[in-house]
Amino acid sequence: MPIFYPLDMLNCNLKNIYFTLLLLLPLKLMAQDTGIPLNSPSYDILNRISVQTGVYLDNATLPVSRQEVVQFIQNVRTSGVILSERDLKDITWLERDNNEFFPGDTLLKYNRRRIFRHFYPTKTHLIEYDSPDFSVRANPMFNFGIASERDNENVLFANQRGAEIRARIGKKVYVYTSFLETQARFNSFTTRWINENNAIPGNGLFKTYNSTVTDKINGYDFNNAVGYIAAPLTKQISFQLGHGRHFIGQGYRSMFVSDFSNNYFYAKLRTKVWKFTYENYYVDLSRPFSTLDPRNGEDKRFGVFHYLNFKATNNLKFGVFEAVSFKRNTGFELQYINPVILYRTIEGGFNSSDNVLLGADFSWNIAKRFQVYGQLLLDEFLFAALYNPKERGWWGNKSAKQIGLKYTNVAGIDHLDLQVEYNSARPYTYSHFDSLSNWTHFGQPLAHPLGANFKELVTILRYQPFPKWTFQARYLNIIKGEDGAAQNWGGNPNLTYNVRPNDYGNFIGQGDRSTISIIGIDVNWRLSHLLYWDFKVLMRQQNSTNDSRDLNSYIFGTGLRMNVWSKDSDF
After folding, report:
1. Torsional class of 295: left (φ above 0), alpha (ψ -120 to 50), beta (otherwise)
2. For residue range 469-506, what is the model confidence (pLDDT) as tens digits?
3. Domain boundary assignment for the chain
4. What is the CATH number assigned to the segment(s) 7-97+131-562?
5. Is the model's pTM score more than 0.70?
6. Three-state DSSP class for residue 28
């Protein structure tokens, strides 16, 4: 069962332009290679090493290039900074994970202890092959998990199987693909979310699943695929075309672009000049699953966003974000292809009313121990409405913000890390008068999973007492305003903001006010390089002014997974 439309059914204008660019422009010099998958444990290692050493890492947008990770490791190795034994083992783990970029290091390459003569030439990858013209790494993907939920007679489970391949063709072109097939039954609050939104978080099309062995096993059946090709256009500019997701920012959440929604078809340009990194994304967006099929001639949805990151120092970074989402029945809006112009200017140039978002962020590493970061996003904004008593709470002041702190080696304890983060989004943020121009994809938020009309405090404590054992505890306290009595109180970006109870006096938590508390405890035991045994406890309590929204969940589970990385259901 496919989860995305075949390429011949996607927007021909967007594809033809970028295939033409790829063919006409010279492929020279350093290539843009494959990236480390989102939510990989590599990112925890990279962030804490960067904070501790002061060595710069360009990780404002994810996925991060593997080649840049290798360069970062080499800079750390030569920086002269003294790291703990466990940090050095973490770095070695990263080197083994990216060993195609260490062709001369026999320790990281073939150890001749192969399985059936061909498999696992090292302990890292099932298949490894390197030559001047071709390089490949292939690994199985699976996740077999089982859990129980109090007051739920059904067994929760995940049965996921797939494969991941990354390769270099020649010296310049890189390819990545992964495919994961899933049958699963979710906890009660995720199931409610699926029923209300007709979508599985982070995925696309789905169908119900019933076991052929026993009628007591049922749930959902769906697939998830990622694939892209990457190559350089010049020394400073690289190009990527594919199907996947991205994440902008240093936080547990992102108020710009996150990995919560389904994968999307995209074209990406990345430019690195001096201390600037500039990325342009051209995205084909989908309607909610419950609406008409956009391939039948109705209006189609698109998104364009760019992000400019400036490295002020090795420890201080600033970023500027701009995005536009829009619908067209004539194909992609060609004027938005211009990579060096403000979208608001284009929008005004042809009297359009597309949905434009503006944002800025920063991250600052302090004293080789702390990282402070934040984001501010403006959807619409009227400064005067903040001070005029008659205009306070104006619905059109749509904004979202984030502020966070990371503290590595808390109280001098090696590998004890703390993260505290506050996020909020005012009612109607990310929405538009035309519900097909909102900041969503497949009916799911493109930024924060809670959509809008919320505020939350996230606390995460992570401890790695031994190289192969990781303990993580997290606590989230959320205030969320939900729609009630058939009224749009601004929490669901899929809805048009033209239907709203009030123009003024709007505030976070309006509507059916819910207080959500989430406590999660995760224990991960790394059995081999990419193989983990997980133990999980999740407690979620939701109390609402609307009693029908009250829901408490207490979940205990365990599972075995390999090369599968996914975020927890914290919404």
Report:
1. alpha
2. 999 999 999 999 998 777 899 999 999 999 999 999 99
3. 7-97+131-562
4. 2.40.160.10
5. yes
6. coil
